[in-house]
Amino acid sequence: xxxxxxxxxxxxxxxxxxxxxxxxxxxxxxxGELERALSKVANEPVRLTCAGRxxxxxxxxxxxxxxxxxxxxxxxxxxxxxxTNLPGDVSVHWVRQVDDxxxxxxxxxxxxxxxxxxxxxxxxxxxxxxxxxxxxSFDEKAMHAAAQYLLGEQDFSAFRSSRCQxxxxxxxxxxxxxxRQGDYLILDIKANxxxxxxxxxxxxxxxxxxxxxxxxxxxxxxxxxxxxxxxGMTASAAGLYLVNVEYPKQYGLPxxxxxxxxS
Length: 263
Hints:
It is built from five helices and ten strands, in the order βαββαβββαβββααβ. The protein has helices at 30-42, 75-85, 140-147, 198-210, 218-225; strands at residues 4-12, 49-50, 59-69, 90-98, 110-118, 132-133, 152-155, 170-181, 184-191, 240-246. A hairpin with a 2-residue loop joins strand 8 (170-181) and strand 9. The longest helix is centred in the first third of the chain and has 13 residues, at 30-42. The termini are far apart.
């Protein structure tokens, strides 16, 4: 029985999920919903590998997963069939057959996240689960300048969660920027890989600088100090989106996500 490997591009609103990964206590997860839907299409159990395990409340427009199956289905049947069986807060946007050496996790050469902070005096009722919120005044230019200290290969111990299970904290930050779009502050960040809570901890530290409580150079001190207790708070999960996972061109995969913009 010959198996084939199938990759999928997935989008979800993380507001009502206990993160992407299956949980031992049976709470609702993105992986659980996807595997349930795909198993109905395959008429047998399907197990997924993902590019990045997002936390409770975190969203994705560009998650990538893969699975192996000996079941013969047209590619469009995997997409249409899974979407028919998925709840409204998860959808499959593309499907490709890939080589056996492809891994949604290990073949990725970069991941990109966008963090959206709604910055007005009054919180939004409509977007309360889709953006973070703060009424404070922020200097986005100081935040952007501080963020540039994080570029390159660095030890990001100061920005990893105490529950992080990674064997080491060295990551390569490929791009990072802060900009303002109307009432929104937008953090765009790209690295080869990320630690648990890394983006949210970086954003929380940048917010301290943006409020004028520390100078931009404080970011470098925090980075080199490698002490999580000295950095800023963990920013809200609601503003975080996994927007793209990049793979070598040989796999022929589409850009896996889009960048949500609210202006």
